[in-house]
Write a structure and sequence with these properties.
By secondary structure, the chain is of the alpha+beta class. The chain has one helix at residues 3-31, and strands at residues 34-38, 42-44, 47-49, 52-58, 67-72, 78-88, 97-101, 109-115, 121-125.
């Protein structure tokens, strides 16, 4: 086998191997998978979460990118699904940003917004009055 043929075969094999890895790397960007640890209880629409680690994701929907699913840390349990509305910020950061809405004394803070790293657009959680 000639050197050029070996190089070509190696190049094709490398291309095939990397193309099978790329979709999983992009999956986090598509669904905005974010692991969040809260050191105290928090509220999300319709649910109070005890302190712990959770996974936030956008639901797998081509048409509606404002449905947020919150899973247990191991992603085996879907804790809640909620609608959110898009919100804009002037400056994106390289980190996940979650803001909180203050609540009355004795109530857990409520998650207000969630921004994925590098995005100007995030989601604002809507609560019933």
């Amino acid at each position: 086998m000639t050197y050029n043929l070996k190089v070509a075969i190696f190049g094709v094999a490398t291309l095939l191997a990397s193309s099978t890895v790329l979709p999983s790397a992009k999956a986090d960007e598509w669904n905005r998978r974010t692991v969040v640890t809260f050191n105290g209880p928090v509220e999300v629409p319709g649910k109070a979460l005890p302190e712990g680690t959770y996974v936030f994701k956008l639901a797998d929907s081509q048409s509606d990118r404002d449905i947020v699913q919150i899973f247990s840390e191991d992603e085996r349990e879907l804790i809640t699904t909620t609608l959110a509305v898009p919100v804009y910020r002037q400056k994106a950061t390289g980190d996940t940003v979650i803001t909180f809405e203050e609540r009355t004394s004795g109530s857990p803070e409520a998650v207000k917004t969630w921004f994925y790293p590098g995005d100007n657009y995030g989601l604002e959680f809507m609560y019933r009055k």
